[in-house]
Known about the structure:
Blueprint: E1 4-8, H1 23-30, H2 42-51, E2 56-60, H3 74-92
Antiparallel strand pairs: 1-2
Amino acid sequence: MNYKFFTDNNRPYFCNCIFMIMTSTYKKIIEDISLFIDSFDEVPINKYRKINNLNILYIENSFGIHPSYNWIGIKRYNELSDASFKNIENSSRYIRPIM
């Protein structure tokens, strides 16, 4: 499989919790309460990215998993996330990479 990096700032939203950000930038984001709508950092990161016209780095021919959304409440969110990742973990022993 051919993996390539590309950047784009014209995508609607970044919703996976895997990201790299400078500590000083993250500190600015989490200290700005005007960016928050709940206790999760997903919305503030995206608002900050949009306000500052920043790119997201994508990996072509890859995928991400977003097992749940935080609006269902943290308890249910954790239950669904844990179950999703446990299923992936259990299934992964049967998956072999395509070469």
